[in-house]
Amino acid sequence: MAAPVQRDQELELTIDSLAFGGNGVGRLDGFVVFARGGLPGDTVRARVTKVQRRHAEARVTDVLVSGPQRVDAPCAHYPACGGCRFQDLAYDAQVAAKEQWVADSLQRLAGLTAPPLEPIVPAASQFGYRNKMEYSFAQHDDGPTLGLHRAGRWDEVLQIDKCWLTTDLGNAIRNRMREWAREEKLQAYDQETHEGYLRHLVVREGRNTGQALVQLVTARGERFDRERLIEVLTEFPEVRSIHWSVNSGVAEVTNLPTELVWGEDAIEEEIGGLRFRVRPNAFLQTNTEMAEQLYGIAREFAGLQGGETVYDLYCGIGTIGLSMAAKALTVWGIEISEESVACAIENQELNAIGNTAFFAGNVGEVLSDLRTRAGDPDVVVVDPPRAGLAGKALKRLGEIGAPRVVYVSCNPTTLAGDVKRLGDVYGYELTRARPVDMFPHTPHVECVALLEHA
Ligand SMILES: C[S@@+](CC[C@H](N)C(=O)[O-])C[C@H]1O[C@@H](n2cnc3c(N)ncnc32)[C@H](O)[C@@H]1O
């Protein structure tokens, strides 16, 4: 059957649900149209942007009738800003949609007719929950500005005066840095011409310690007055650490080597009663408050009694492993980022924990060595990036065959694919799964899953 719509065609649609990733789902005689900006219950006018054999994509141009869950977004930058997708969807409906996405993934991709899903844990704070923000500089007619990318645009930066996902301190530091850039008459870097200087600003906050770290990313050359930058940033007593990175490439990245300009080289965060040192490039869950809950669920699923050997794979700065150490015999962490491993080792000392060890390496490559060194694990915790367990890592994990695998996932589709393979090939059964909302107003959802040998 030919698609019943064409590109650029204007449609009137009723939206009946939210698809994974956040687009509204409408139907034209059964043909599915994913409408960006459509919320359940809305009747919308939408323009078709892409047509495929089985579905089309469209962008909502007008909401003709609002659905019952549509609310007023509090942020003045919404919906132009790409930071939030759902400020106009009631929070209850956001978490219900996320829970459904996890259920759908486990049903469709893991082939489980009745996945053992427990109710989603909603976020404790719907706004102001982030401990890290990355802003981009851009040159406007009246000087450099600092903000976030426009929704759907990699090449356009929207000036942000108040972001609802960060704190008053985070907003104040960003706005002060914009003024600084203007006072110093610095030019923002232009992604098309590759001219200009200022590229990004990263602000990290220890939300439970009140400490802040600022990383400035520029193009090549030292074109700013260090003393003035330090003066401006130390107007904020919370700022403990100022770093500078040079990005001489074209890619818009911030995970670059840094030079310490002023202060401590790391800040500290407190999670679940433990202190963690955080360097500019080290991974830390961006919602401190919900990280405590996520780790609590991981501990519950691990079911430690005190005598277990635990592997903490993709361990970052050691947060999960260190939070389990008191209930385990030994904990062994693997992490690819050397900067994160350095933090993990410092963190075990900072917390006077003596039964943990952390190693730098690629999980797929070093897991067999770890087994030789540490012995067979009773519990393996994995917390991989969005792509899930790479082929080799999954194979090694399956071969080790630990009685319990606690899988902390930030992507339900790769979680479901990995659950299926761990089941089909290595005999694991998914026995518990609990989604956690760490990122209100965005389509992201975390999930902790427990796999056991059948
Ligand atoms: C989602 S984070 C989890 C970190 C930590 N468990 C936490 O909760 O803070 C994933 C981590 O995996 C690391 N990583 C990515 N690929 C890896 C690989 N192939 N081997 C080991 N670590 C990897 C990343 O550097 C990152 O720190």
* Helix fraction bin: 10-25%
Q: Record the strand order, biggest sheet.
A: 8-7-6-9-10-11-12
Count the domains: 3
Distance between the termini: 44 Å
Gyration radius, rounded: 23 Å
Instruction: Catalogue the ligands.
Output: S-adenosylmethionine
Q: Care to describe what's here?
A:
Strands 8-7-6-9-10-11-12 form a seven-stranded mixed sheet, with helices on one face. A seven-stranded mixed sheet has the order 17-16-15-18-19-21-20, sandwiched between helices. A five-stranded mixed β-barrel has the order 1-2-3-5-4. It has helices at 91-108, 168-183, 226-233, 288-302, 319-324, 338-350, 363-374, 391-400, 412-424, and strands spanning 10-18, 24-28, 31-36, 43-51, 55-65, 132-140, 143-149, 157-159, 198-206, 211-218, 239-246, 259-263, 267-271, 274-278, 309-313, 330-335, 356-360, 379-382, 404-409, 428-436, 446-453. Helices cover 24% and strands 31% of the residues. By secondary structure, it is of the alpha/beta class. The chain has three domains: 10-65, Nucleic acid-binding proteins (OB fold (Dihydrolipoamide Acetyltransferase, E2P), Beta Barrel); 99-124 and 287-453, 3-Layer(aba) Sandwich (Rossmann fold); 132-271, OB fold (Dihydrolipoamide Acetyltransferase, E2P), CATH 2.40.50. The model has no long low-confidence stretch (mean pLDDT 96). The longest helix has 18 residues, at 91-108. The structure holds S-adenosylmethionine. S-adenosylmethionine binds at residues 283-285, 314-316, 319-320, 334-337, 340, 362-363, 383-385, 410. S-adenosylmethionine (SAM) binds next to helix 5 and strand 16.
